[in-house]
Amino acid sequence: MLLALSSCGGGSNNQLNQNNATSDTSAAAPATSTAPAGPDLVIDMSPANIAAGKGTYEVTCAPCHGANGKGDGPAAAALNPKPRDHTNGAYMNKLTNQHIFDVIKGGGAQFGYPGMPAQPQLADDTVKNVIAFVRSLAQNPPYTPPATASK
Ligand code: HEC
Hints:
The chain contains six helices and no strands. By secondary structure, it is mainly alpha-helical.
């Protein structure tokens, strides 16, 4: 789409182009701040998946991470370190989907936090829905799925 614009620049419009260059916050710029490098596990964050993930989360994760994901579930008091606050977008958005998947399926011990138990009984699609829900909790900033350039 952007290519269509290039035919009218000519060269006589330098001033206009410079103005554009300095103020350009192009939507086409890669989202280096949040998107992980390389291909990541693709999570479909449709409302239906988020709702399904919420159901699993309330049973399996909320006792520690809290119903709202703030890391303040009833079981959290006994844990050190405390369960991660999923509403902390500044932290959570840096985690790849694959990492969250591995943490849920395989537990936190492999990454140095054994307080987070493995849930190998959850089907892959169930885990993906839980990730969709967990992603939906992030604030400041909220989670933005990486542009899916059909991989
Ligand atoms: C028994 C309590 C407990 C349960 C149940 C639990 N967690 Fe955790 N979780 C923890 C603790 C403790 C940590 C480690 C906090 C830290 O040091 O980062 C953690 C960390 C995490 C992290 C952060 C990983 C990282 O690299 O920072 C994610 C994501 C997570 N849990 C998701 C979940 C999800 C999703 C579920 C449900 C499927 C779940 N947890 C169930 C206790 C729990």
